[in-house]
Amino acid sequence: EIKKAVRTELGLTCSIGVGPNKLIAKLAGDLQKPDGLVTMSRAEALVLFEDLPVQELWGVGERTAERLAQVGIFTAAELGRAPLSMLTTMFGVLGHRLQAMGCGHCDDPVAQYDEKRIVKSVGHSHTLPKDTADVAIIQAYLRLLAERVGERLRRYGKAGSTVSLYVRYADFTGAGRQHRVGEPMTSGLHIYRSAVCLLRQYMPLRKKVRLLGISLSDLTPASGGQGFLLERCGREERLMDVVDRINRRYGAATLKPGSVLTAERFGVKERCGLIGTYLFDRKR
Questions:
Q1: Interior CA angle at 126 toward 91 and 260, to 5°?
Q2: C-alpha angle 203/206/208, rounded to 5°?
Q3: Three-state DSSP class for 34?
Q4: Which of 110, 152, 167, 280 is the most exposed place for a label (fewest CB within 10 A)?
Q5: Does 51 share its domain with 153?
Q6: CA distance 22 to 230
């Protein structure tokens, strides 16, 4: 019925894949383009995975495929059989998702085209201008990232309870750590302190660092769950509000912590990468 409606209303052909999840349904839909209709079970998909190049899996890009090839993983089935410890060492928390995909599992829900996606985290990442193992420089970038995350949270009227830190090394391996705090927060300083605690878990650094990322999840309205915190730290909240208004008027980072200057001297790109921007940052 869908194929017939598309052809009648638009004069176009389309391919449709039906499967137990989005991963397999998309794979099935690609098998008989441009005018196919394929139904595939997970068992049928696993047979296909034996010879399917890993980059044919939905969500596995060229760079990820290149890194998997370096450790001898070329097919989807080999990805599913790969040790989870190796994948998490290479890709952090994404390793769990990659192994599940190699086994034909995908829990992502199917959303309607016009459905608003709820953002579950707000964060920033930054690729350093050159790799470094200098802890003072790394901490300066963490302060920079924490300030930018905090500013966006306050602009959205949100607060976060779980801080995540991601570190990517010069050899493109990486790992993530996270920590849940007792009270939802929006302060760049508080976010930074939590990130530094997570950074200690990476010490001593055995490789130079290439990229850093900080994000906050478990988002709640900033006014909810922070009542006593606002009373206790009213001066700090007022200061953040003044800084935000000045920076919005005269340009980002017009006012900033002095420790950020260390990162700026080392080199800062004009725009840090954004994490979790779909709903809040798009034009309404």
A1: 135
A2: 105
A3: coil
A4: 110
A5: no
A6: 44
∠ CA 277-281-283 to the nearest 5 degrees? 140
User: How confident is the model over 219-255, as pLDDT tens digits?
Assistant: 988 864 444 444 555 666 666 777 777 777 767 666 6
pTM attached to this predicted model: 0.54
Angle in degrees, 0-180, between the axes of helices 22-29 and 42-49, rounded to the nearest 10 = 70
Contact partners, residue 166, CB within 8 Å, separation at least 6 = 92, 125, 174, 175, 176, 211, 212, 213, 214, 215
pLDDT by residue (tens digit) across 11-56?
A: 888 899 999 999 999 999 888 888 889 999 999 999 999 999 999 9
Q: Does residue 10 belong to any structural domain of this protein?
A: yes
In the listed set 70, 102, 134, which residue is the last one of a domain according to the structure?
Answer: 102
Q: Are 26 and 104 in contact (CB under 8 A)?
A: no
Residues 127, 250: one domain? yes
Alpha-carbon radius of gyration of the chain: 22
Same domain, 57 and 140: no
Do 132 and 78 lie in one domain? The reply is no
* Contact by Cβ (8 Å): 169, 90: no
Per DSSP, the residues of 61-120 read -HHHHHHHHHTT--BHHHHHHS-HHHHHHHHTTHHHHHHHHHTT---PPP--TTPPPPP-
Q: Which domain holds residue 37?
A: 2-102
**pLDDT of 276 higher than 60:** no
